[in-house]
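Need a sequence for this fold. Nothing fancy.
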């Protein structure tokens, strides 16, 4: 069985849904994961925010806009004889949102409202496929995808729930929702923005799929940020490790958490463009391809924290005490550098920053610097090729480099820089590493 995931842009209108349906039709045995129609999750999140702020009228108006958005898609998708059934699917789900607005707001209601985008989209797509004599069985993600107390699904649990469902053999076409899940208490939750990729690789691992296809609006992972850099190109093959690092440090084409299930179970992931299905896209697999630098990505909104203390010199346990503070505050650390008497780390979530700062001050002098970015250069940098580190750092000679992390991974160099310099740095790296000029 193959897993196919379609993102919101791949299901953004009637014509795109028809293209996705034609790709699904070509596979007799597949497990399809679909996101909400592009833009709908934002609309539903706005409904939840208005509801939380007790602005019921604004929430009601956005509900109306959401319904009209789906009605337009249905009108372009279905023949007159069946369009009313499709419109009823939309109305029933919108009615469920209206019902939420009649009571007091809770976080559970918020997650329930946001989940309706995936439900409406998957139900419309399943109805369209079946109306075109392409048999598909619709599954509810809430029936098999649960997140544990740590917010992460367990592959073995997903597998047992899927295979425990009535009528679920390893053949035929199945379709479900991405992004959404139940939490460990059985309440509606989700896997975060872009979580449909994660749903797809979790399902692929649970089903021991031969392949996972991620269908999107871009022909694969690019070597640099196409929104900034002129003449980027798709990377045709990446190792799981390379793809994971590019995704984590800013490459938006793939959810950062989605790589590990495929890596653990060695399932190839193929990223392809829905509107150009014959384009080669990007293949992720276990084997790395020799070829120097593969790509560059940037992560903005980074804060650096520096702890300096003479007590660190020739002592043990100092680092563990620092990281215990971040663990207690449930704040992940991205980049770490150390000297004899100081430690510098970066975070991208300031929710507990003041608490962290207060606790760290018991260990030494603390300095905080905001408005930074992480630039990550990924490829066969340290493993097989000499001189790349020098080239990379040389290209940054006119910029303000705050931190450099090199050697923690065999295939990346991570540089912390002022956020305002990111665009120029990405262009500079493009010229030097890929010999492409930014015009």
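Here you go.
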């Amino acid at each position: 069985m193959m897993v196919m995931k379609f993102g919101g842009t791949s299901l953004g209108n009637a014509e795109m849904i028809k293209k996705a349906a034609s790709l699904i039709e070509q596979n007799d045995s597949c497990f399809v994961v679909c996101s909400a129609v592009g833009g709908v999750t934002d609309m539903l999140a706005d409904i939840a925010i208005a509801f939380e702020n007790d602005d019921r009228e604004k929430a009601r108006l956005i509900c109306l806009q959401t319904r009209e958005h789906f009605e337009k898609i249905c009108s372009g998708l279905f023949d007159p004889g069946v369009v009313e059934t499709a419109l009823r699917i939309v109305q029933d789900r919108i009615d469920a949102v209206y019902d939420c607005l009649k009571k007091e707001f809770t976080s559970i209601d918020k997650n329930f409202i946001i989940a309706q985008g995936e439900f409406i989209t998957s139900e419309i797509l399943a109805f369209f496929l079946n109306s075109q004599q392409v048999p598909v069985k619709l599954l509810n993600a809430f029936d098999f995808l649960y997140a544990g107390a740590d917010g992460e699904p367990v592959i073995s649990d997903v597998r047992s729930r899927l295979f425990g469902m009535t009528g679920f053999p390893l053949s035929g076409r199945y379709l479900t929702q991405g992004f959404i899940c139940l939490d460990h208490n059985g309440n509606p939750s989700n896997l975060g923005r872009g979580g449909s990729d994660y749903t797809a690789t979790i399902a692929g691992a649970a089903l021991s799929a031969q392949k996972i296809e991620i269908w999107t609006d871009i022909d694969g992972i690019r070597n640099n940020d196409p929104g900034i850099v002129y003449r980027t190109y798709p990377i045709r093959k990446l190792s799981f490790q390379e793809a994971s690092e590019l995704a984590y440090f800013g490459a938006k084409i793939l959810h950062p958490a989605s790589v590990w299930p495929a890596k653990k179970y060695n399932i190839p992931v193929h990223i392809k463009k829905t509107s150009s299905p014959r384009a080669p896209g990007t293949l992720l697999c276990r084997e790395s391809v020799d070829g120097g630098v593969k790509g560059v990505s940037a992560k903005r909104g980074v804060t650096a924290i520096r702890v300096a203390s003479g007590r660190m010199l020739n002592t043990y346990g100092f680092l563990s005490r620092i990281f215990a503070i971040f663990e207690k505050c449930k704040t992940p650390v991205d980049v770490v550098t150390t000297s004899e008497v100081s430690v510098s780390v970066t975070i991208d979530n300031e929710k507990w920053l003041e608490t962290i700062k207060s606790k760290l001050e018991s260990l030494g002098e603390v300095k905080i610097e905001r408005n930074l970015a992480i630039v990550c250069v990924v490829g066969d940098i340290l493993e097989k090729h000499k001189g790349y580190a020098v080239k990379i750092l040389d290209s940054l000679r006119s910029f303000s480099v705050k931190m450099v992390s090199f050697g923690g991974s065999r295939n990346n160099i991570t540089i912390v820089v002022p956020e305002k310099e990111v665009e120029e740095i990405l262009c500079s790296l493009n010229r030097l590493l890929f010999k492409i000029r930014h015009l």
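For context: The mean pLDDT is 91.
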